[in-house]
Amino acid sequence: MRFLINGLKGREPLLIDPSKASDHAALAEKFGFTDILSQLFGAAPEPYVLENGTGVIPVVGVIGKGLSPLEKMMGSSDVDAVSEAIDKMVANPSVQRIAFHISSPGGTVTGVEELANKIRGLKVPTMAYSDSEMASAAYWIGSAADRVLAAPSATVGSIGVYMAIPDFSKAAEMQGIKMVVIKSGKFKGAGIEGTSLSADQVENLQASVDGIHADFKAAVQMKRKMVKAETMEGQTFNGKQAAQAGLVTGLADSFNAALATF
Questions:
Q1: Would you say 53 and 95 are in contact if contact means Cβ atoms under 8 Å apart?
Q2: How far is it, in rounded angstroms, from Cα 245 to Cα 262?
Q3: Per-residue burial over 66-91, b = 16 or more CB atoms within 10 Å of its CB, e = otherwise
């Protein structure tokens, strides 16, 4: 998956557990044919409207922006597609409330803040629920809803950001390779394979990650005001722990049970 591979190579920050990002990227590389993917993953879940006026929008899989049809078939959620689904729900006079059914470990940064802002600004009541995983980018999105529910055994949280930039300079040196980078601007070309980051480059990238993390925490506390700073350091919680920490507003064993309280 190109959007994950860019992050894994240190080209952009990620809002997903590193091991899950690597697993997903490896799976995409292994199964590269559309017909096989279709058999493996089936059709992506589509938004729908219940008879009681509840619009349901699934947010399933790794989250990205501007995804290709193949990436979507791999089980990823496009923030643009979720945003379009929201617009259709709002334009539908029969929709009185919107529920987000979330099962995602997170994803890349781009578009996540804007989608969360859109959810937070909706005039109809909103709810986010997960019976599996609502972590990192997925929690940023879900936390913007009026109510956030989870199954007791679900995984919730992971409020953090990271970049991973491999340093292959020693390996290149051992192979007799010396990378010469011709550039203008001390931050340009940071992380090119075969080079090491300078102290200034590390400081600049750290500042970028810290800024995104600060935005993430501030966004959570707009609706989840009881969440403490020490709860937002990248750790995850099960549903029961998340309820005690204020990350979710209640527990429900299933999506149907959550809908019954909405």
A1: yes
A2: 21
A3: ebeeebbbbbbbbbebbbebbeebee
The amino acid that residue 27 corresponds to is: L
Domains (ranges, CATH) in the chain? 2-165+224-260 (3.90.226.10)
Sequence-ordered list of residues with C-beta below 8 angstroms from that of 169, at least 6 positions apart, any chain: 179, 194, 195, 196
Paired tokens of 104: 């995602």
C-alpha distances (whole Å) from 37 to each of 20, 25, 133, 153 are: 18, 14, 22, 29
- Rounded distance, CA 183 to CA 167, Å? 19
- Tell me the whole-structure pTM to 2 decimals: 0.86
Q: How far is residue 257's CA from residue 193's CA, in Å, rounded to a whole number?
A: 50
Dmax of the chain from CA atoms?
A: 69
- Using alpha carbons, list the distances in angstroms from residue 259 to 43, 50, 85, 97, 149: 23, 10, 19, 11, 10
State the amino acid at position 66 in one-letter form: G
- Encode the chain (262 residues) as per-residue pLDDT tens digits: 555 555 545 556 777 776 676 665 665 555 444 444 454 555 678 999 999 999 999 999 999 999 888 778 777 899 999 999 999 999 999 999 999 999 999 999 999 999 999 999 999 999 999 999 999 999 999 999 999 999 999 999 999 999 888 888 888 888 898 888 888 999 888 888 888 999 999 999 999 999 999 999 999 999 999 999 999 999 999 999 999 999 999 999 999 999 999 9
